[in-house]
Amino acid sequence: MVWTTPMTAVANSVFTAAQYNIHVRDNFLETMPAKATEAGFIFTRNAEHEIVARFPRDNQNSSVVTISGTDWNTTAGPSVTAETGERAIIFLRADATPRTASNTYGGIAYEISGATTVAPVLTIFFDGTTVDNQNTRAGATLFTGLTPGSNTFNMAYQTSASDQEYDFDDRMIGVIPL
Amino acid sequence: MAWTAPMTATDGSQYTADQYNTQIRDNLLAMAPAKATGERQYFVSNGANSITSYSPETQYIPNEESASGGAGPDYIDLDTPGPSITMDTGERALVFFRADGKVDTANFINAVILEVTGATTFQDFSTVADGRSEANAWRTLSGWRLMENLNPGTNTITMKYYAVSTSQVYTYRFRSLSVMPF
């Protein structure tokens, strides 16, 4: 179905079944109640005069992962997959504990795969922490330039050197597709 | 009003008042303009062919307040409890929070937790800040949580503060809590 600009009625004209089907039936099928299939969806513009239902979602991994090295580790997750338009709000959160030395760097980022490919770019960094002391960092970014479709957002990790270890814990990634 | 799948009109058939009331009146009442009853609302599906409206809420407590713990580790209230937000939610809510915290003793952590009461009861998600070991050094705690498995209805979300014992004094300021129900 597509949206049609509502017609303007004229006195004494016949309102045909075809007109009803276009201006009432088909236009109603473009509205939120018609697009709502279950609870928890928000609605955004998908194209001119077209809305779509999007589902905010997150994923978390409560296990501790030990990371070392400047290459982004993209295997520890978590990741979340969502149908998006061109934009999405991406949330990250982790606890981080330096295990080798104080005041060393640890970083978390997101990478994107699927309809869009984006390599990890440092989003949140941990620094200035005493060794074996835990710190929490969380943040969000509005990402623009996605290719609409199914996109997977995956957490990535790095440290300052291959001999500098960080424990990352209570790791969370969330997405509000727009 | 409940949504009814729009009928298909056929040439020569009579369009009755009942059909108008079901197809036009009741369906229009199920749409966003009819559901827009307050300011700053957005729209979320709350079931098949059904939407509802929500408005984000926030509370901010700027003043600096201190407290000590009890007999053991616990999440406590400050003299001004919260921030706390009571609102109708669906099964999910996106929660943002922040606070500055410090402890009067070196090597002790600050942490906050979100406590949910009302239609749903649980404590969820703590965040800790232990970036520095010196006493009375301010540190920022901030985070977010997409709470799921809430019982739809009136839920209260409250920030509470970690305290180990009566020996340390925990101080917080610039406490903020925001909630977007889904």
> Which regions of chain B contain 5 or more consecutive residues with pLDDT less than 50?
none
Whole-number radius of gyration of chain B? 23 Å
Q: How many strands, what sense, and barrel or not for the largest sheet of chain A?
A: 5 strands, antiparallel
| Broad structural category of chain B | mainly beta
On the 0 to 100 scale, the average pLDDT of chain B is 90
Cα separation of the termini of chain A? 21 Å
Shape of chain B: rod-shaped
Strand count of chain A: 11
Rg estimate of chain A, integer Å: 23 Å
Largest beta-sheet characterization of chain B: 5 strands, antiparallel
Share of residues in helices of chain A:
under 10%
State which percent range the strand residues of chain A make up. over 45%
Question: Helical element count of chain A?
Answer: 2
Number of helices of chain B: 2
Distance between the termini of chain B: 20 Å
Give the largest interface pair and sizes. A-B, 42 and 47 residues
**How are helices and strands ordered from N to C of chain B?**
HHEEEEEEEEEEEE
How many strands in all of chain B? 12
Question: How would you explain this protein's 3D organization?
Answer:
The complex is a heterodimer of chains A (178) and B (182). Chain A is mainly β and 178 residues long. Chain A has helices at residues 17-28, 32-35; strands spanning 42-47, 50-54, 57-61, 65-68, 79-84, 87-98, 106-114, 118-126, 135-144, 149-159, 165-177. In chain A, strands 3, 4, 6, 9 and 11 form a 5-stranded antiparallel sheet that branches. A 4-stranded antiparallel sheet of chain A has the order 5-10-7-8, with no helix packed on it. A two-stranded antiparallel ribbon of chain A has the order 1-2. In chain A, a hairpin with a 2-residue loop joins strand 1 (42-47) and strand 2 (50-54). The radius of gyration of chain A is 23 Å and the shape is rod-shaped. Chain B has 182 residues and is mostly beta strands. Chain B is 9% helix and 49% strand. Chain B has helices spanning 17-29, 32-35; strands at 42-47, 50-54, 57-61, 65-68, 74-76, 84-89, 93-103, 110-118, 122-129, 139-147, 153-163, 169-181. In chain B, the strands form 3 sheets. In chain B, strands 3, 4, 7, 10 and 12 form a 5-stranded antiparallel sheet that branches. The radius of gyration of chain B is 23 Å and the shape is rod-shaped. The chains are: A mainly beta (178), B mainly beta (182).
